[in-house]
Amino acid sequence: MEKLNFVKGISYKDFTVESSEYSEAAKSTIIRLKHKSGLTVVHFANKCQDNMVFFGFRTADKTACGTPHIMEHSVLCGSEKYKVKDPFISMANQSVNTFLNAFTYPDFTGYPVSSTNKKDFFNLASVYADAVFFPMLDEGAFMQEGHRLEIGDDGKVSIQGVVYNEMKGAYSSAEQQLFDAIQTSLLPDTTYGCDSGGNPVSIPDLTYEDFLDFHKKYYHPSNSYIYLYGDMDMEEKLRFIDEEYLSAFSAQEVDSELLWQSAFEETHDIHKEYSISEGEE
């Protein structure tokens, strides 16, 4: 069967090619497609045998509760198809991936994975796609990755949580506190004025209900880009994405607009205090 030529206007499954052009800078033919669910696929087609897929969502949070960061951890704690406690660790230990990770940025969350082995690539892509679109997100995962109260051996109650403790470590740095003060002072009306990783003071304010609402709102195909890279069978990959995942969704409006910071009417003089370790100057 002759392979489909992905040029502008061509449709395949529920995808339509919006553009196709060669980029000398990327040494790739960049093909951009739109799915009926609202999702955009961008394929960097070239001769590279190391195939990559990247699931990206615009997560413009308006709080410092660390919801994007906690969500990034939690979706990888089991999904409808892969009901294991930590599929991320299983993938890392059992696959021949060349890259496997997840990132939280101020305005988007991304899940990239790559492999030179075709079967391994499909397995990894399937786990990631199921994780982001159909995660279990049970309350136990929220408490484990986000925050919970715990009684220590000394009988004292403390706040614990993977992300909470991670960000406590980050905020023990004077540089991190300075950076946070600059961001919140210069960009208070934007998502960049909130720490997407989470401020330890604010993380315990996040409720389980708000956590679930965050996924429902932002982790929809209409708010997502999938990037593909390398020498691959485009029809095969699109058929897999469409039939296994996107067919369950319809397009919808997602309010994830990134707002501009309005200019200040007057100069602001900001003073912040922060703690240092004993003996530091």
Defining key terms:
alpha+beta; two-stranded antiparallel sheet; 281 residues
Instruction: Give the overall average pLDDT.
Output: 92
Kindly state the number of beta strands: 11
Radius of gyration: 21 Å
Distance between the termini: 72 Å
Which ranges are low-confidence, i.e. pLDDT below 50, for 5 or more consecutive residues?
A: none
| Helix and strand sequence | EEEEEHHEEEHHEEHHHEH
Contiguous helical run count? 8
Shape: globular
Strand content: 15-25%
In this structure, how is the largest beta sheet organized? Answer: 9 strands, mixed
As a percent range, the share of helical residues equals 25-40%
Derived from helix and strand composition plus strand pairing, the structural class reads: alpha+beta
What can you tell me about this protein's structure?
The strands form two sheets. Strands 1, 2, 3, 4, 5, 6, 7, 8 and 11 form a nine-stranded mixed beta sheet that branches. The termini are far apart. Helix content is 30%, strand content 21%. The radius of gyration is 21 Å and the shape is globular. The chain is α+β, with helices and mostly antiparallel strands and 281 residues long. It is built from eight helices and eleven strands.
